[in-house]
């Protein structure tokens, strides 16, 4: 499932391609047809992100500066993704991340499974480009004169009003990628206070989107490793000070991944040099996806288990 930084990269792409202009909207699959019809011809005013949730705001082109009352609420879940295509201008002007990542062979994954691009992306001359036919089960399609975005397989795709958007965002915990979140004492206090009140495993708590929004499997694994906290330690048994430090660490890791343009947590100064043959993950992550391989700090084999049906990775020696 894409984590918070990936959703923000997608939002950046959508923002650069579509915000400030009108779009043609449809639902080739048919499951979103009524809502797409309401959005057809409207102007995209903004794209908001809170954790793993995206909210695209639509307004009438006659009142482009009005605050949106129509919002498309999207949560990709485990299987959702966006496919982009467009003419030469979307490459020349440097839009988003869709064209910056080299194509990945089918069946492989490089941390960008939520972003894909169609054949011939950025090659057609401006003025001669037309959106290609939809491929697969496209829930929602929007396009303008230069680009098209197809949404496939989302866990949630719904049209809501502004009051419903506010309710949806209020249900989510603080987002480590919000501007100023790292130094926001109130956000750190909120996370630490709620986490400390729970008699649940901290490995479950940091994946609870109502407590902290945007963290997924990779950031959970490596943040807890760097904090030296066992994923099985109860939140109530971790001091609030240590939990506030964990908040800062998560903010740092997620912002590092956002800046890098790919989901990685490894501090370049700690990355194996030369890289470990047969352990490419060690150049990107500390413990995630490194089951049975030696911990980069103590040499103990990394362990794996299931927690709430999600894979969990940790070092039993470094994490207590």
Automatic annotation (TrEMBL):
What region holds the FPG-type domain?
A: 286-320
| Classification of source organism | Bacteria, Bacillati, Actinomycetota, Actinomycetes, Actinomycetales
Protein name per its UniProtKB record: DNA-(apurinic or apyrimidinic site) lyase
For this protein, the record's InterPro entries field holds: FPG_cat, FPG_N, H2TH_FPG, Ribosomal_uS13-like_H2TH, Znf_DNA_glyclase/AP_lyase
Q: Known Pfam families for this protein?
A: Fapy_DNA_glyco, H2TH
The family classification in the record reads:
Belongs to the FPG family.
Q: Where is the Formamidopyrimidine-DNA glycosylase catalytic domain?
A: 2-98
Name its GO BP terms in alphabetical order: base-excision repair
Enumerate the GO terms in the molecular function aspect: class I DNA-(apurinic or apyrimidinic site) endonuclease activity; damaged DNA binding; oxidized pyrimidine nucleobase lesion DNA N-glycosylase activity; zinc ion binding
Which class of enzymes does this protein belong to? lyase
Keywords for the protein's UniProt record, in alphabetical order: DNA damage, DNA repair, DNA-binding, Glycosidase, Hydrolase, Lyase, Metal-binding, Multifunctional enzyme, Zinc, Zinc-finger
What's its EC? 4.2.99.18
Q: Does the keyword Nucleotidyltransferase apply?
A: no
Tell me yes or no: is Nucleotide-binding among this UniProt entry's keywords: no
Among PROSITE patterns, the record links this protein to: FPG_CAT, ZF_FPG_2
């Amino acid at each position: 499932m894409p984590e918070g930084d990936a959703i923000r990269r997608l939002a950046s792409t959508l923002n650069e391609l579509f915000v400030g202009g009108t779009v043609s909207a449809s639902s080739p699959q048919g499951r979103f047809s009524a809502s797409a019809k309401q959005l057809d011809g409207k102007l995209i005013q903004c794209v908001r992100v809170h954790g793993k949730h995206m909210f695209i705001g639509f307004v009438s082109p006659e009142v482009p500066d009005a605050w949106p009352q129509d919002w498309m609420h999207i949560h990709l879940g485990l299987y959702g993704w966006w496919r982009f295509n467009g003419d030469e201008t979307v490459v020349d002007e440097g839009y988003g991340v869709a064209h910056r990542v080299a194509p990945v062979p089918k069946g492989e994954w490089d941390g960008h499974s939520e972003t894909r691009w169609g054949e011939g992306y950025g090659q057609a001359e401006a003025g001669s480009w037309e959106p290609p036919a939809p491929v697969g089960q496209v829930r929602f399609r929007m396009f303008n004169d230069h680009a098209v975005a197809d949404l496939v397989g989302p866990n949630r795709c719904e049209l809501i009003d502004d009051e419903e958007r506010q309710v949806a965002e209020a249900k989510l915990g603080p987002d480590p990628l919000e501007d100023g979140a790292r130094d926001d004492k109130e956000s750190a206090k909120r996370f630490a206070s709620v986490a400390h009140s729970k008699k649940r495993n901290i490995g479950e708590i940091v994946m609870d989107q109502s407590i902290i929004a945007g963290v997924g499997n990779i950031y959970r694994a490596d943040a807890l490793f760097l904090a030296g906290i066992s994923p099985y330690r109860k939140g109530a048994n971790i001091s609030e000070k240590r939990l506030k430090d964990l908040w800062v660490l998560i903010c740092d890791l997620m912002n590092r991944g956002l800046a890098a343009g790919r989901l990685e947590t490894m501090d370049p100064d700690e990355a194996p040099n030369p890289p470990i043959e047969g352990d490419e993950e060690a150049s990107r992550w500390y413990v995630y996806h490194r089951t049975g391989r030696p911990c980069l700090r103590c040499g103990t084999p990394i362990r794996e288990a299931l927690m709430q049906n999600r894979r969990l990775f940790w070092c039993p020696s470094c994490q207590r």
